[in-house]
Amino acid sequence: MTRYEVPKKFPTTVVGSYPKTEQAENAIKMRKSGRITEEEFKEMVKPSIREVVADHLWAGIDIVSDGEQARDDMVVYFAERLKGFSSGGWVRVFDNEYFKKPIVVEKVEWVEPITADLWSYAFSVSNGRPVKATLTGPYTMLEWSFDLHYRDRKELVMDIAKAIRREVEELVKRGVEYIQIDEPALSTKPFKEEADMLKEAIDVVFKGISAKKIIHVCYGRLEKILPFILDYPVDQFDLEMKNSNFRLLPHLKELGYNKELGYGVVDVHSFQVESVREIKEAIDKLMKEGFIGPEKVYLDPDCGLKRLPREIAKAKLKNIVEAARLAREEW
């Protein structure tokens, strides 16, 4: 397979999730009802992953993903495959979104590869383009679970971090170049003590890892947490920007931000497809702030695309790619 050269300026990527295909939805239901094994489940979702990667390639995305087609929920998916969790009752997230909140009932430990097999499959159909691996982070696993075993938040988050580290090591063995830890819960408690606890956990997850190390955080009052997290041992923060009208930019500038930036330029909660011109203007807005160069900016959606119709998701990605092409010519 020929290695794909990621552009040096404004590479395009995705945050992770993508609209589920009908086959992926059916596979998840069949596994949960016990009608198929985990191995049969993985085989059943592979055609859906192929479709997602094909959409990303059609749009021209530089760093693709498997679309998280195997995941019914970002926390439940990992809780079901780590030792230490059991299934809880239904909990409302927002609007009509519900999930079965996991319960920690014993020591949390990694048992076997969770995402690595499907990452390998996605890479095998990506025409040499890198596939970003996305993992739910230890803090979000902590916050979105009930703990009936540890009764000590730090002890629990560190054990989750150790388990995720084992998964990271599996991914690195297979050649992963980009690993993203998703921490949407971090913005819900924007306090220094919470950020400091996660920093220790992230150090466990990433210490000594050669792949690109990324944290994704979205929504909430991100400007309140930024001063406490910018020294994390990561290469890149991937941040929602479009939905909040790019209000973080002056804060990043004031704080002397100097890492790579995953720059959200399309709103995943809107069915409106941002035009190429609108996305290009968002890129120009960042460049005119003057605190970051184009070689450190990765263009992507605000968050995962799973709640959008597939054709709208495709169109948004296509326009990001075209806006990136124009921006490379100017900047």
Provide structural commentary:
The strands form three sheets. This protein has a six-stranded parallel sheet with strand order 5-7-8-9-10-11. The longest helix is centred in the first third of the chain and has 22 residues. The mean pLDDT is 95. Helix 2 crosses helix 4 and helix 2 packs across helix 11. With 331 residues, the protein is an alpha/beta fold. Helix content is 41%, strand content 15%. The protein has a domain of 180 residues: TIM Barrel.
Summarize the main sheet.
6 strands, parallel
Q: Would you identify the regions where 5 or more consecutive residues have pLDDT less than 50?
A: none
- Round the mean pLDDT to the nearest integer and report it: 95
E-strand count: 11
Portion in beta strands: 15-25%
- Tell me the CATH architecture of the domain at 60-239: Alpha-Beta Barrel
Per CATH, what is the topology of the domain at 60-239? TIM Barrel
Distance between the termini: 31 Å
- Using only C-alpha atoms, the radius of gyration works out to 19 Å
What is the tally of helical segments?
11
**Overall 3D form:** globular
What is the CATH class of the domain at 60-239? Alpha Beta
How much helix is in the residues?
40-55%
Order of adjacent strands in the largest pleated sheet: 5-7-8-9-10-11
SSE ordering? HHHEEEEHEHEHEHEHEHEHEH
Q: From the helix content, strand content and strand pairing, which structural class follows?
A: alpha/beta
